[in-house]
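To: structure desk
From: M.T.
Subject: fold request, one chain
Message: Could you run this one when you get a chance? Sequence is below, nothing fancy, just the single chain.
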Amino acid sequence: MSHPDQAPGADTVGRTDPAPLRAFSDEQLDELDQVAPEILTRGLPARLVGNVDALLMSRLDERPWSTLLAAAACHDARRGDPLALELWDRAWDAFAGSDDLRGMGLAANVRANIAFAHGEIPVAVTWWRRAEGLLGERGEVAIGAAAHGSLEAYARGDLAGAEERARDALLLADAAGEPGDAVVALVYLSLYGFCRGDIERSAQLLDRALAICSSDPARNETSLVLGFLGTVAALRGDQAESDRTFALALERAEADDTPWYATMVRTLRADYTARWAPHRALVDARRAQQETAALGDTWWHGLARYGEGAALAELGDLEGACEVLQLAIDELTNPFERGFAQLELGEVLLGLGDRAAARDVLEEARLAFESSGARWWVTRTSLAMGSAQRDRGGRWLRLARTMAADDPAYDRLFTPAQDLRIKVVGPPAVLLEGRQLEFLTRHAELATYFLAIAGPEGISADELARSLWPDADPRRIGPRLRTLLWQVRNALGREAWRVQRHRDRVVLDLTGVDVDLHREALDRQEQLAAEGIVGAPASDRAAEPMGGGGGLVATTARPSPLVLLQGWDVELPPSLRVPA
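Reply: Done. Structure tokens follow.
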């Protein structure tokens, strides 16, 4: 719709004109009454944003369709403006007075959208259900209302129930034969799949939704779909793709003049890219909080506050992160989403060394995630619990491994949150973020080196104990070993979960850890293969004592031997002296 002197048909919606602002004429309002149901049905009131002032200046008396369209457009353009509700009340009363069921159905949908934008999920669901009842199961608005109804279960943390409701809406859309009818249901299904940890299915559903939106430029959900795709890429650690997709989402939201979607995208980008872009995430989160406060949206305001806490944690302001995350916990009403902030707070408390407080908040988050069937979140929380309860780290790691699915998003959870390197070639050291760790005892440090050399198969607990305390009373070996493993975990801090005891074996999980021996061995194996030497061992772990300054010499085929644990007068446990 351009200038009030032009016919306000659907083909003119979205165009603006620099001419002086004037109210719509009676003829233009007559035409607007005719196209209003189609515009409302296809979700296009935002395309009237440039003409809202002109529309609101017009005489809308006894024109319920134009009045309802004005209410929807006012809501899209001026989130939080009470005039939107005033206009809606007038339209609803007119439709109810004439018993116009279609008008009442579309009005119920507009009312639900207004409540939804304020974060009033129960109120919104009530109105969407009313829209379903008035419109029947056919038509995009009715199908969309059915999909939106899934939020009732989601608000309780019932992901299975929410998914079932959204799936029913998708079946209705598929039966209708109109691809556009499926978009809302696909977005919700992708959200619930993401929350349940089925990352691949979420990506597939979003790709389908994006294909539908791309074929219909009039739809304005494209930016939100792109935002969720950016979130999936972030969870999988694909930084370049995530940054690119989020940028496209914001560009599209600006082009569509949908500030609410832009705020959602900024919130998602803050929440999920803080790990590699914390300064940008902090800006996104704080801007999103300002915008949601202005829009009266309490739901996304809480999520944006959670994003601020994540960004502050990545920037090293752990005290500030604790304060902001506690505010987010108090603000978020969905137990599942509150768990996001609780998990982040638990990890921050671990960074501050307050393991007792971390255990409490992580346990509450874990219970919320488990009851919701949130697989990825349970996996991440279990790993954090392994650091909080270091004496039970192995049990928590086994639970995390059991829950993990075959997807890069899960693999990324088992990579070090910090740069962890273990040097056993030459002078040994354990480096965390470039800082050499200090162990409470020499035995704890030596055990760490033995476990790093052993690799994923680990060492039997009995052999490790005999190597460290060859002359000890067998009755004292068990308590000594338990104390030793506690000392190793204590030194590793947030990576403590890596130290595990599986019945009679002790293992150090080396996923994502740089152990120089294994790297050297792989390089040598590749060199031998290139030289045509067959039958070369896969590992160069065979070792013998070295004279002089102590240490071990790894016996290798070629080139020169490796010197292990230089400066330590020790022997490797027997199983580590045999080539793998």
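Reply (cont.): The chain is about 60% helix and 5% strand. Let me know if you need anything else for the meeting.
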